[in-house]
TrEMBL record:
Top-level taxon in the UniProt lineage: Bacteria
Domain VOC: 8-134, 159-285
InterPro entries associated with the record: Extradiol_RC_dioxygenase, Glyas_Bleomycin-R_OHBP_Dase, Glyas_Fos-R_dOase_dom, VOC_core
Protein name: Ring-cleaving dioxygenase
Swiss-Prot/TrEMBL keywords: Dioxygenase, Oxidoreductase
Species lineage: Bacteria, Bacillati, Bacillota, Bacilli, Bacillales
CDD domains given in the database record: PcpA_C_like (cd08347)
Keyword Ligase among UniProt keywords: no
Matching PROSITE patterns: VOC
Length: 326
């Protein structure tokens, strides 16, 4: 069986305790478009919010499950410890530094890390984020920022960049990335910034920031205790449903426990945990977010996959109202 290479990041899903403030921050401050207001399909009592480029192109989605009683995150190992967001060039980092100051968002200074300009910051719940400049990047293309965003298109977020995995035993994660998932180890790099750990860099497909995984070893901290502001899982792009079904067979033959094929309506998925316990998802590029809402009004109303539609009244009764039309 021949598998096509994974295409790079598909989405990152994180946890928030406050959907209203989350919506405000990611749309009004970061300028992402809410392309889908839906539910956690495994727990229909909470929202699942999808932020992305103008139409939710794969590789641009940052999503959040609302868990109102989520406690504080205690950062540690065996976690997805950083999500980076691509912007067009170094000049855009200057724009973002000023914008974060205007909105009183905690951030670091612009740094050169791993050969690219970056700007690390945190959202209102401590979510660990970083802008990364695509000025010197080559590889998988980014998306297209929404032209109705409060952020000028030329400085808008164009997709997900490298995702950092912090683990206690890097060799077993590296083995899954290379031998099971087909990633290639690109380099081992020391940061240009004091205090940053050396990282191993893996990439797939066309390469570039939209495909890279950073692997960091930490043995002097406890396992992360997730809560609000933590990342739940990272998903990687598979071109088609046919290809995804091959991955189901591939993982089965490699004796890796997995979810099997899962219907998510907006895409099709497969879940498994790598040996350090981090949850990975493989997700198809389509069908996308416009099957149940027109492009012009994406994210404005509660969208339910058809197999939940007969429960709409019950589901809406449990959800706290969230106005996403303004």
């Amino acid at each position: 069986m021949t598998l096509k290479p994974l295409l790079g990041q598909h989405h990152v899903s994180a946890i928030t305790a406050n959907a209203k403030e989350n919506y405000r921050f990611y749309t009004k401050v970061l300028g992402l478009r809410l392309v889908k207001k839906s539910i956690n399909q495994d727990d229909t009592s909470v929202y699942h919010l999808f932020y992305a480029d103008e139409r939710g192109n794969p590789g641009t989605d940052l999503t959040f499950f609302e868990i109102p009683n989520a406690g504080q995150t205690y950062p540690g190992t065996n976690s997805i410890s950083l999500t980076s967001l691509r912007v067009a060039n170094d000049e855009s980092l200057l724009y973002w530094k000023n914008r974060l100051d205007e909105h009183q968002v905690e951030h670091e200074e612009i740094k050169t890390k791993y050969g690219r300009k970056t700007l690390a910051f945190r959202d209102f719940e401590g979510q660990r984020l970083e802008f990364i400049s695509d000025e010197t990047n080559q590889g998988v293309a980014g998306g297209k920022p929404w032209d109705k965003s409060p952020v000028p298109v030329e400085h808008g977020i164009i997709g997900l960049g490298p995702v950092k995995l912090t683990v206690a035993r890097p060799e077993i994660t590296a083995k899954v990335l290379t031998e099971i998932m087909g990633y290639r180890e690109k380099e081992s790099i020391q940061s240009d910034s004091e205090g940053e750990s050396p990282l191993r860099v893996f990439e797939t497909g066309e390469g570039g920031t939209g495909t890279e995984i950073y692997l960091e070893e930490k043995t002097d901290v406890k396992r992360e205790r997730p809560g609000r502001g933590s990342v739940h899982h990272v998903a990687f792009r598979v071109e088609t449903e046919e290809e995804l079904r091959k991955w189901v067979d591939h993982l089965k033959s490699a004796r890796i426990a997995n979810s099997g094929f899962v219907e998510r309506y907006y895409f099709r998925s497969l879940y498994f945990r790598e040996p350090n316990g981090i949850l990975f998802e493989l997700a198809t590029d389509g069908p996308g977010f416009e099957g149940d809402e027109p492009y012009e009004s994406l994210g404005e109303n509660l969208a339910l996959p058809p197999y939940f539609e007969n429960q709409r009244a019950e589901i809406e009764a449990k959800l706290k109202p969230l106005n996403t039309k303004e």
